[in-house]
Amino acid sequence: MHIDITLLVQMFAFIAFVLFVRGKLWTPVSAMLEQRQKRIADSLAAAERSRRETELASKRSRELLRDAHTQADEIVTKAQQQGARLIDEAKDAARLEGERIVAAAHAEVERAFNRARGQLKAEVSDLAVAAAKKILRREIDIQRHDDIVGDLLVNFYRKTGS
Fold this sequence. Notes:
Elements: H1 2-137, H2 142-160
């Protein structure tokens, strides 16, 4: 019978232990486990919120980056158009300036040509008058007349450089 009393004592000790654990330890351990479970649940919720916020931030950053690329493309396009327009304007201005310079050069050449023609007419008329005077002063002789006209032509060609 020793076994029965030992068994009863062990049962009594076990029941006393269970009551002690349930009365003194179970409530604090349960509260501690509940607090831990709540902290874990809060951490998981915070992690989920953080993941969603990260996704939203990533989406916003992709949209901002796409907008920035679009704006950069627009700026580059506008700059290229403005550059082409400035080049065209510079070409037009250069063409007009060239035409103006050419017109001015033509006008200057025309003026110089007219001045030279006027001077040449004056010199020819002076030479013709001088030749006529010489011819009239001398007696009219064909040989002398040819010599005088020849001399006048030689002088005229020397002066004009022709």
